[in-house]
């Protein structure tokens, strides 16, 4: 199980902040661990600046996977079943999934009005990444998970093996129980090591 943003693709909201010049949109779950607080802040900023889903999608259309991400996903697919568990939205993910060869992704939905204004968001469920790993365990799967941020740590803890990928120092300090990979070669090595012990 993989997180999407920060692991396979750049942070969508950071790219959008750079494009719009709205500095407060740079905040991610690396900065604000409470996802609802973060999303309410984002929705308020979008409304304040008159921005909607088409504006965000135009930025996403110009994005691509992180260098080496597609090769990493292909390497994983040769060895494991791959599922992306993300706190992004289906309305954002489609063009990025195409560029990654359409891996399975479980994420959330946006509520958009007729003018393209994002009026709300709908989580698939509470703590969806952890719940998904728990459900896979119920199907007798062994899970190796990787993510980069606060919102990934319950998924990593629920997995049989959890790995932080290029996390910020504050996440490393708060979650020393997880090994850290700083590039895809190190992440491959951590996946291989974890799979040998499962």
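^ structure tokens above, recovered residues below v
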């Amino acid at each position: 199980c993989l997180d999407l943003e920060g692991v396979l693709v750049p942070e969508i909201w950071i790219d959008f902040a750079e494009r719009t010049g709205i500095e407060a949109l740079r905040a991610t779950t690396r900065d604000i661990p409470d996802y609802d607080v973060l999303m309410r802040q984002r929705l308020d900023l979008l409304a304040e600046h008159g921005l909607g889903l088409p504006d965000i999608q135009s930025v996403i259309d110009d994005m691509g996977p992180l260098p080496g991400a597609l090769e990493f996903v292909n390497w994983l697919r040769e060895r494991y079943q791959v599922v992306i568990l993300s706190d992004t939205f289906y309305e954002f993910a489609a063009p990025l999934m195409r560029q990654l060869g359409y891996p399975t992704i479980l994420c959330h939905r946006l509520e958009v009005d007729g003018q393209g204004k994002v009026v709300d968001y709908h989580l698939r469920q509470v703590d969806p990444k952890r719940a998904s790993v728990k459900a896979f365990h119920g199907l007798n799967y062994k899970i190796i998970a990787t993510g980069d941020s606060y919102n990934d740590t319950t998924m990593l803890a629920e997995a049989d093996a959890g790995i932080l990928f290029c996390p910020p120092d504050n996440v490393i300090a708060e979650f020393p129980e997880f090994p850290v990979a700083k590039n895809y070669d190190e992440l491959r090595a951590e996946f291989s090591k974890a799979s040998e012990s499962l």
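The chain has a mean pLDDT of 95.
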